[in-house]
Amino acid sequence: MVLLEAARLTGDAREDVSECEDSDEESTSCAVSSILSITTATSSASEPEPSTPKFGSKAKPQAAITEVLEVDCRLLDQQFSAWLPFLQEQMVFGDRSAAAVADGLSSALRHLWAFICRVADDEVPEAPLEASQAAERALAIASQDASHKMLRESLDRLVGEFLSRMQQAVEDWLQMTDPGAEDLSHLSQWLLFEARPAIIYFCDAAESFAGRLDRSRTVYDSLEKLSLREWESRSCEESAALFAQIFEGYGEAVPDVASALRRLGAAAALWRRWRGHAEATERAASVLVASLNAALRSQRAAAQPLRQEVQMFIRTRKRRRSFRRTLQDFQKMGACGEKSHDCSEEVLHQALQDAVQLGSFCRSAAAEPGFWASETTTAMCVEVLSSFAKAFESEVSSLAEALVSVHATNHGDDVRIQRFSTGEDAGVLTHAARGWARFLDTLPGNVTLQPCRRAAVALMANTWTQHLIRFPPRGWSAARMLSVLQADEAAVMHVRGERGEAGAPEVESFLAVLSALRRILRNGKAEWKDLANAEAELQRLLDEDTGRAVAQAFWQAVSQ
């Protein structure tokens, strides 16, 4: 009994002690909690948190930045395969457009900022204008361990791994799909105006506390150059192929010059697309030059056979043969199956109209070139456009001369120029001027009117000069010669029209020749001193030999 009682008393005492101990621990823990809360509040009040932009309200424990920046390359490859699934060889179908590539690369870039910030991807802004905010947040997180000696290497290695895989993805896309210039333009615009601001901002700002991220900058520059280089190359190739197809030949189909003008207009406006980026704008200027060169080369290649046909046609029609020789030629043509040379004025007019429109485009573009990133590049584009405008204007003059020559050959009676020896008092050019005026009225459209006017006047002036030299008038009085000169001047003005092009060199030159000849007879008779002055002016207006021959022929006609 004694032992049982002692055991009971001992157990009650231990329970009392344990209860006291429990109560003591609770009071102690309460006291410690109060102290920690006070200490925490005090430390929070004395050490404010850094003010950095946040993606969301979720908070996660922050580990050392160098521990976070360690990247698993195998895992990163798997993530890129998920972001760009169409690049896998076993994927036969899928969206492989430039927009899909840009979306995949945007997901990779968003994961990079989330990886540095130690947040989920969905907490990173997706809008293009907020991409720099994500880079700024990542920069603030990375700068917390600015004193760590391995920070620069860790940052450079991490960003470089992401960018190198982005470049490899673009290279694989180029090899698998062979995209066109428009797709490459879309991807390049995403790189320059959405990805570049965030990447360059991060690399530049990280240099202030971690050092220069050489590898990251090098890889991004390589990616940017790759995209722009491929866009430039494909743009030039597509322009050359398009213009070669448009100007395949005037004999088979009518060229779609409207498509050519749209292509050139898009090339001339590329400075707007790449505004703010010097290298891209310079490459755009190169595309403009290549497009203009392709247009001129293709147009000349299509028009050259027409000019050769015109020369053969005129040479054949001008041959003077006897009836027997002509009959023999017809027999040879029938036996050998030889085709007679023929030229269509409609085809020549179409080629002339195309050249006029291309030249007008170059002139208009040179007048309003825009701003190509720098004054030097802009001046170069203006000079190039002006040079191509002159080249197309040379084509216009050549084709207009060919068209007028064919019309003169086909309608010789309507535009025939009388000889001085026929004794016409109404003017040598009066009859021809009426015929050329009717021809000009029948031209479709107005863009080819002025070139044909100049060509017609040039042909009239050349024929008039040759007739004066070879068939000068005999026994004409000074008054009669003055009357003929005035009538011919009126005929030239009639061909030029009331709204003729002011300052046309062909018209003004011939009018100056007629004026110089009239000054020889200003006193009603030929004066030797007036002849000497007129001869010098004629040699300036015409070539030296032709001017001397015209002055001598005119002097012999009026002095007799």
Class by helix and strand content?
mainly alpha
**Which geometry do the CA atoms define?**
elongated
State the end-to-end CA separation.
Answer: 180 Å
Q: Give the H and E element order.
A: HHHHHHHHHHHHHHHHHHHH
DSSP strand tally: 0
Number of structural domains: 3
Let me know the average pLDDT: 79
Q: What percentage of residues falls in helices of 4 or more residues? A: over 70%
Counting H and I runs of at least 4 residues, what is the number of helices?
A: 20
Unreliable residue runs: 1-64, 335-341
Beta content comes to under 5%
Summarize the structure.
With 560 residues, the chain is mainly alpha-helical. Helices cover 73% and strands 0% of the residues.
Task: Give the helices and strands, then pairings.
Layout: H1 2-46, H2 65-68, H3 73-83, H4 98-117, H5 131-142, H6 151-177, H7 181-206, H8 214-246, H9 257-268, H10 270-273, H11 278-318, H12 323-336, H13 345-367, H14 375-410, H15 430-441, H16 449-470, H17 478-496, H18 505-520, H19 528-541, H20 544-559
Helix pairs in contact: 3-6, 4-5, 4-6, 4-7, 5-7, 6-8, 7-8, 8-9, 8-11, 9-11, 9-13, 11-13, 11-14, 13-14, 14-16, 15-16, 15-17, 16-18, 16-20, 17-18, 18-19, 19-20
